[in-house]
Amino acid sequence: MQRTWRSPQVFQLPAGWLQQVQQAYPHDYAEVLAQLIWQRQLTTPASLAGFLNPDHYLPTGPEAFGVEMDEAIARLLQAHANPDDRLLIWGDFDADGLTATAVLWEGLGQYFPQAERLFWTIPDRLQQSHGLNLEGLEQAIANGITLVITCDTGCSDAELLQWASDRGLDVIITDHHTLLPERPPVRALINPRQLPTDHPLATLSGVAVAYKLVEALYQALPLATAQPLEHLLDLVAIGLIADLVDLRGDCRYLAQRGLQQLQQLAQVRPQASRRPGITELLNRCRGSGDRPTDIRFGLGPRLNAVSRLQGKADLALQLLTSRDPTAARRLAQQVEELNQRRQRLQRDLLRELEPQIQQQRDRAALVLVGEGWHGGLLGLVASQVAHREDKPTLVLSLDPPKTQPRLARGSARSIAGLNLYELLANQRSLLLRFGGHPQAAGLTLIDEHLPLLREALEQRLQQYPPDRSQAAIAPELTVSVADLDRPLFRALYALEPCDRLPQLEVRGCRLQRQWQNSVGSGPYRRQYWTFQITDDRGAIAQGQYWPESNAETLPPEGDRCDLVIELDLRSAAGDQNRKELVARLLAWRLLQSESAIPMPDLLDWRSQLPDPAIAAHILTTCPWSWEELASHWQQALRLQQPLALAYPHPEAESLERGWRQWLGILTALAQRSQPVPWPQLSDRLGWPTALISTGLQVCQPLGYHWQASAEGLLLIWPDRAQLAWQSPHLQQTHQQWQRLLREWQRRRQFFAEASLKTLAAGLNDRYNLRTSEPA
What is the pLDDT of residues 493-547, one digit of tens each? Predict the structure, then answer.
């Protein structure tokens, strides 16, 4: 697959920043750590010490949730004083929901006798899906339940919550999913989306919100006999990291503390562990407990495998909460066997899909349909295929042939630069049900509509192709082969827990002694390559590459090339307790001679008058992306003229004035019955059409509907007059829009101030490049 390769930019660090990082991290490669933290905008100078060391972080208390938390605690205290109150924890079946259920089961269990006054339930993944359901609520009332506490679910179930309220059933919601425009009739609703987007608690996952409820109860009603609150943090870390939330603020702090707890569990024998089930699982996935990868690729998939195959997640929750080493060993073995079966079924299904994938090679989207496929695996396989083929992928399982109407149900996964939710929303008339987010969705439709859906997706993607700039290879730092050693890894490790490992560019090296290896046997055998990375200075590092298929994908031995790699630890062959440092290969390109690369001829007229004696292709508007600049450079090449940068420094537009102008444009659009041409909108706002399109998506919670076509933009906004502009829901949309505009301003400022040398190097890195599939 050919993808754009963007070599790392060198960011100008603010004065004193490097010295502050060196004080907080007095080791080798502190400058690398300083550069990465600044590039990713992970923290400020004032909070740097707490970012690198949780001992120096001041966590935010549960009182930050305000009156909602107060109401929740008041109701729990009322229940504690009333022996007739019976409580039900309503959880969810994925790793975040499971750990959230376990946190409430153990935390509330310090105050309410388990299985006497405190109970739990988790929906069946295959029969009931996420959220509340009427059958479960009716059963709760029949069992004398008076208070339901949800975790990682509940916010979107307005009708069921009204049904429960009408029957006198109190509900406390702890969740982190999207809020409805109107608050449901519940006793308390604790959700970090009610907070400003830059709040330290804004990105909490479901398990972390549940933990905050328990923390508040511990503060309101201290018990000398209660287990230490920090004993719940191992569960919190699992849910946070498995749910892929933004690990900043208190999320990072809780994950750091929880990883410390997990490391302790990994270092003791199950018989001596306070949580033997997790210790057993860590042993089986060979994790040390102190890395997010131990959770993301070890614990998380094993916990999720239970409900994927069985529907019910009871086994996984029992494993998390069991204190009996013998029972934990049995439960862990069952979970391990389910995960291995899930892997086999997933590989079998992928092989079954191959003929359809080959038949649809020339299509923009893959719609893969079959009978009898396991519903719990469709999303996993769709994700694999979408990643490998670099195409949006739908995997759908058909009802039995004689079913009327015969339905196709399944999952869809997207690729970089494509909003899958928007793509499917445009085909709403063909779908019975669908829901999800820009990268993943679930859907159901009548089988007769499958051909129509295929063609509709094809036409839409031909008209509005994915933004391929978002699929670019973008390493963050350039290092040498000699740098690929433990000191650099320790500096990179200081970033963890983080959402992604740093990608490093290594230039002008060679791959020597390439060996093909394999794991597994028979049809489940997977091949990978090991090799040595060398350079002209004699430095050597160990490398590894796991391809998606058995195709030969490495450069020829001895050819000079550039690499993109991630540094990671792996268990040594024959000794699972010893860790080796390995450079995991993500992409490569052959080193090209300078004469083979078209050199951009750039003129800098940004701060001087144009020279009328020079015939040049003149750029008068400051670009906001490399793609925009590259398109003008290509035009200049076709004209055989230099590209003259003659744009003024962009003025910093007031965010509030920009917001008022944006709302004025939306209002004017809503009053038009015909589409407004894109160039007219772009001229009016001074924004590129890509930014306008993104802004429309960001602000869609305002309640309008819009349709984009070649003729322009048509917007319908029926309920604008009824909007409560000061509501937290709309304030959050306002803040998200401001972040979008601020990022646009930052990008334009870069192109206004970057030197010709920097711009020429960036353009060079975007052409005549060859890459391999990411591992």
Answer: 999 998 788 999 999 899 888 887 777 666 556 677 888 899 888 888 888 887 6
Q: Are 597 and 591 in contact (CB under 8 A)?
A: no
Of 267, 263, 288, 281, the residue nearest 322 (C-alpha) = 281
Give the type of residue at 192.
Answer: P
Tens digit of pLDDT for each residue in 641-686?
888 898 888 877 788 888 888 888 888 888 888 888 878 888 777 7
The one-character DSSP state at 114 is B
DSSP, res 395: E
CB-count exposure of residue 624 (10 Å: 0-12, 13-18, 19+): buried
Round to whole Å and give the CA distance between 371 and 230: 47
Task: Enumerate residues 6+ apart whose C-beta is below 8 A from 107.
Answer: 210, 211, 213, 214, 217, 218, 229, 232
**C-alpha separations of 502 from 44, 220, 497 in Å:** 19, 42, 12
For the stretch 150-199, pLDDT in tens is 999 999 899 999 999 999 999 999 999 888 889 999 999 999 999 998 89
Closest CA to 507 of 461, 548, 467, 564: 564
Of how many residues is the chain composed?
Answer: 775
715 close to 706: Cβ distance less than 8 angstroms: yes
How far CA 765 is from CA of 6, 628, 748, in Å, comes to 6, 15, 20
Say if residue 598 is preceded by a cis peptide, omega within 30 of 0. Answer: no
Helices (H), 360-419: 378-389
Contacts 24+ apart (CB under 8 A), 264-270: 264/289, 265/234, 265/289, 266/290, 270/325, 270/328, 270/329
Contacts of 395 (CB under 8 A, 6+ apart): 353, 368, 373, 378, 379, 381, 382, 385, 410, 411, 412
On whether the pTM is more than 0.85, the answer is no
d(Cα 357, Cα 366) in Å, to the nearest integer?
A: 7
- Residue pair 364/414 in contact by the 8 Å Cβ criterion: no
Q: Which amino acid is at 378?
A: L
> Tell me, what amino acid is at 587?
A
Query: What span, in angstroms and rounded, lies between the C-alpha atoms of 515 and 727?
Result: 61
**Of 170, 254, 247, nearest to 208 (Cα)?**
254
Please give the DSSP secondary-structure letter assigned to residue 34: H
Q: What is the distance between the alpha carbons of residues 256 and 21, in angstroms, rounded to a whole number? A: 19
